[in-house]
Amino acid sequence: MASEAIEKLIAALNRLPGIGAKTARRLALEMLTWDTDEVRELADLMVDVKTRVRRCSICFNLTEVEPCSVCSDMRRDRSSVMVIDFIGDLLAFERTGLYRGLYHVLDGRISPLDGIGPEDLNISQLLHRLRHGEIREVILANGPTVEGDATAQYLSQCLTPFEVSVTQIARGLPVGSDLALADQVTLSRALEGRREY
Amino acid sequence: MICHTDGLVLRGFRMSESSKVVVLFSRDYGKLRLVAKGARRPKSKFGASLEPMTWGRYVFYRQDNRELQILSEGDIAHAFEPVKQHYGRMAAGSAICEFLDHITEDEDRNPLLFSIALEAMRWVGSIAEIALDVPVWYFQIRAAGAVGYRPHMSGCVQCGARLQRHRLGFSPGLGGTLCDKHAGVGMRVQFETVNFMAHLQVGRPDRIDLSLLRGVNRAEVTRILRAFFDQHIESRYRPKALDFFERLRAAEPALPYGAGIQDL
User: Fold this and answer.
1) Residue pair B97/B241 in contact by the 8 Å Cβ criterion
2) Of A170, B43, B252, B264, which cross-links A193 as Cys (Cβ 3.0–4.6 Å)?
């Protein structure tokens, strides 16, 4: 054992996703080579993020102000809301720069095997937005998995009473992949989602 | 050693940013835990072959004394799309996969159980929605037989007497139904319920007479099976998918089986 303090730091870093014991040790030793001010800055940043960042009460995006920058941006199309499973999905769509509507983060997917049901997701909040907002289109952008499809199916049932257009992002082949190597499920989804060219 | 086998994907776990662990019930090696490197990437060679409730042909590198084997290839044999594309059927399929995962030990080969699981999954995809409980019951009952603790439903488990209509019992501890004389030591059950459960033990799905569902009390079947498996399976079994499925069925309008039976 190097020292109790270092072992504690390694154990703490090891709790992060994707950080194994070796990587945690390397990071801890790297920090020891930094100036005290640099380490303090990192620690302050982490505490700052933890204390200031919260969830937007409307769309459940991460934000420091209420509502979040997406919900408060009046230049965005307020008639369209994209339903996504996780905040990471929102960041991915924002990186495209193509979508200019609003979002709604469910914070998970319906997964019977994990005991996650509709009541565990932010679905009632979405329905509240539909009742009290100006939304005309709901884009279902749930992940292309069994759980994502189940979530989309459940949502489409919930959305039936509303006068909104419900669409789903395309399923199928990733750009740059080899068509001959695609499996039958992926190919059939791609075929089902074909469009006029 | 390179191994080839058919298997049914029971579930998957995220392992790292790009990889996942898949629990596969295989025909030739029993239950396996396989690492699929890169399976979470959009251009993964595994495609949809590792989604739960998928029957596929898999190639993996097997090494003794290793808990996780390395998956090399996955090719879909049957994706059970009718199951995955319907909310209630997906819940039923999940309950079957969860139960199969729970009643099996790693690398304990059981080809009969594998074929029962495929039969049940096919049936989940094709049966009328009103009777969606039946394939789940069928799988639970037949799977119990395939792993060695088949419930005794054809007579009294105490004395062997034929079951009469008026008063019946079921004893989870004794492992079966009880006649009028011995019913006092078990839970009270209806004749139609027991009769249908016994019928599920004998045949394949295409031989099951769904008209026998008339008069069957769904909650009673669930209660009997729960009590039986609580008694015979390790007590740590806390079924999430089965709970989910049963909540879903209970939330639906009470289904008088008799009313829709002619449509089955």
Assistant:
1) yes
2) A170
Across A75-147, the runs of DSSP E, i.e. the strands, are: 77-84, 101-105, 137-140
The SS3 assignment for B81 reads helix
Q: How far apart are CA B136 and CA B230, in angstroms?
A: 17
pLDDT at B126: 95
Where residue B235 falls among pLDDT bands split at 50, 70, 90? Answer: low
Domains of chain A, by residue range, sit at 6-52, 75-192
Tell me which residue in B90, B244, B247 faces A146 most closely, judged by beta carbons. B90
Mutation target vs B (from A119, A183, A189, A191; most B CBs, 10 A cutoff): A183
What are A134-143's pLDDT values in tens digits? Answer: 899 999 999 9
ipTM: 0.86
Domain-by-domain residue ranges, chain B?
A: 2-79, 82-263
CA distance B158 to chain A (A): 37
Contact (CB<8Å) B47/A154: no
Per-residue DSSP letter, A112: G
For A:146-175, CB contacts with B below 8 A are 146, 149-150, 153-154, 157, 174
Give the separation between CA B134 and CA B111, rounded to whole angstroms: 22
Closest by Cβ to A18, choosing from B16, B51, B94: B16
Query: Closest Cα of chain A to B24: distance in Å?
Result: 14
B7-33 pLDDT, tens per residue?
999 999 988 888 999 999 999 999 999
| B177 closest CA partner among B145, B218, B187, B208 | B187
Q: Fold for domain B82-263? A: de novo design (two linked rop proteins) (1.20.1440)
**Candidate CATH numbers 2.40.50.140, 2.60.120.1440, 3.20.20.80, 3.40.50.1010; the one for domain B2-79:** 2.40.50.140
pLDDT at A149 over 70: yes
Q: What's residue B259's pLDDT?
A: 46
Any chain B CB within 8 A of the CB of A112?
Answer: yes
What number of other Cβ atoms are within 10 A of residue A39's Cβ? 13
From the candidate CATH numbers 3.40.1360.10, 3.50.50.60, 3.40.50.10610, 3.30.70.100, the one assigned to the domain spanning A75-192: 3.40.1360.10
Name the more confident of B262 and A125: A125
* pLDDT for res B137: 96
Give the fold, CATH level 3, of A6-52.
Helicase, Ruva Protein; domain 3 (1.10.8)
- Of the candidates B171, B170, B54, B62, the residue with the CA atom closest to the CA atom of residue B117: B54
Q: What is the per-residue pLDDT across B107-150, written as a single tens digit (0 to 9) for each?
A: 999 999 999 999 999 999 999 999 999 999 999 999 999 999 89
